C-alpha cells in the first residue's frame, strides 16, 4: 500500500510539472523551474518498490506543495512584470518565499539522490567504502538507506548485512560470519548439512556463491578488534573471476581502523553534528511535542543532544516527560 501511495505522489508531481511547463513558458515560466526539473529527473530514475522507505512521502509532499506555490507566484507576477525592474515582478515578501523554497528544493533533491550517489562508486569490479563518524551520527542509517534504496542495477543478485555491534571486544567469529553470508546469498545448504568445515573451505563456498554476481555486503559496526579476518575476506572477493561487481561497505567510529581496511581514498565521513533546530527539523524526529516551547528550549535541546540525530531521537521522550512536566 505504501508503494502505491509513493507511486501516486511521484506521478502527480511529474504530471503537475509538465502542466506547469506547458501553461507557463518563455518569459512567464515558473520560478525555480530548473530545480523542479532536477527533482523530476531524480524521480524518473528512481523505482518505487515495496522496500522504498515510506518517509520519501515527505519529500514528495514538499515538492508538490512548492510547485503549487511557485505556479501561484508566477500568475501573480505576470500582470505586474517589468522587463527592467530590479525585482523582476516579485514583491519583497515573494522573494523571501522563493529563497525559502529554493532551500527546500535543494534538500528534497539531496534526499532523493545523495546517499547512493555519494556512497556507491560508479566503477566496475570489486569496490569497498568505509563510512566513519562518531556514535549516533547516522552511519548505520546511511548504510541502511543505500542497502534498501539503491537501484536494482547496482546489486541485482545479493544484498548481505552483517551486524558486528555485539563484538565490541574480542575477535570476530570469522567462521560464523561466513556462514551467515552464505545463508544470505542462498547457500544455506552448505552450512546446514551438519558437516563441520574449516574457514578456508567456507571462503571457497562463498566465492562460488558470489562468482559473477552483483552484490552489496555491509559490515556494520567495526570496532577496535582484530581485523585480519577482513583482509582474508577481501582477498577472496577480489580474486573472484567473471563479470560480477562486488561492493563492500563498512561502518566504524574509528577512522584509523576504517582507513586500514579500505584505504584513505575510500572513506566517507559523516558530516559534523547538527547545530541548529532548523537542521534537525527536516529529519522528522519527534519534535511536535515542543509546540510553543520550541524556541525557548532549542538551545538547551541542541546542547544536550550535542547535535546528534540519534541522540535527538532517543532523548525526545525524556525531554517531553521531564522538561515539559508530563509526569
TrEMBL record:
InterPro entries: NB-ARC, P-loop_NTPase. It comes from the Eukaryota. Keywords: Plant defense. The keyword Metal-binding does not apply. GO terms for molecular function: ADP binding. Residues 124-263 form the NB-ARC domain. GO terms for biological process: defense response. This is Disease resistance RPP13-like protein 4. It comes from Vitis vinifera (Grape). The gene is RPP13L4_11.
Amino acid at each position: 500500500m505504501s508503494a502505491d501511495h509513493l507511486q501516486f505522489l511521484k506521478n502527480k508531481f511529474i504530471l503537475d510539472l509538465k502542466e506547469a511547463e506547458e501553461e507557463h513558458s518563455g518569459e512567464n515560466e515558473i520560478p525555480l523551474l530548473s530545480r523542479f526539473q532536477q527533482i523530476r529527473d531524480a524521480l524518473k530514475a528512481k523505482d518505487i518498490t515495496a522496500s522504498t522507505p515510506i518517509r520519501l512521502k515527505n519529500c514528495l509532499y514538499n515538492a508538490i506543495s512548492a510547485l503549487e506555490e511557485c505556479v501561484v507566484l508566477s500568475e501573480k507576477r505576470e500582470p505586474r512584470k517589468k522587463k527592467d525592474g530590479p525585482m523582476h515582478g516579485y514583491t519583497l515578501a515573494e522573494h523571501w518565499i522563493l529563497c525559502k523554497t529554493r532551500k527546500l528544493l535543494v534538500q528534497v533533491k539531496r534526499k532523493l539522490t545523495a546517499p547512493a550517489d555519494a556512497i556507491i562508486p560508479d566503477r566496475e569490479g570489486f569496490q569497498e567504502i568505509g563510512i566513519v563518524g562518531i556514535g549516533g551520527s547516522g552511519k548505520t542509517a546511511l548504510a541502511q538507506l543505500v542497502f534498501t534504496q539503491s537501484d536494482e542495477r547496482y546489486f541485482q543478485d545479493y544484498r548481505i548485512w552483517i551486524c558486528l555491534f555485539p563484538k565490541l571486544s574480542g575477535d570476530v567469529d570469522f567462521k560464523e560470519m561466513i556462514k551467515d553470508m552464505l545463508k544470505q546469498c542462498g547457500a544455506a545448504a552448505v552450512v546446514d548439512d551438519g558437516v563441520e568445515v574449516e574457514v578456508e573451505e567456507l571462503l571457497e563456498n562463498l566465492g562460488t556463491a558470489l562468482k559473477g554476481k552483483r552484490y552489496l555486503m555491509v559490515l556494520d559496526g567495526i570496532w577496535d578488534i582484530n581485523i585480519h579476518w577482513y583482509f582474508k575476506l577481501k582477498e577472496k572477493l577480489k580474486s573472484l573471476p567473471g563479470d560480477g561487481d562486488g561492493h563492500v561497505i563498512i561502518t566504524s567510529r574509528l577512522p584509523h581502523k576504517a582507513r586500514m581496511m579500505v584505504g584513505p581514498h575510500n572513506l566517507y565521513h559523516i558530516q559534523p553534528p547538527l547545530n541548529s533546530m532548523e537542521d534537525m527539523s527536516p529529519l522528522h524526529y519527534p519534535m511536535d511535542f515542543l509546540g510553543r516551547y520550541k524556541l525557548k528550549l532549542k538551545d538547551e535541546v541542541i546542547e544536550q543532544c550535542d547535535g546528534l540525530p540519534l541522540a535527538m531521537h532517543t532523548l525526545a521522550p525524556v525531554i517531553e516527560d521531564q522538561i515539559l512536566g508530563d509526569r
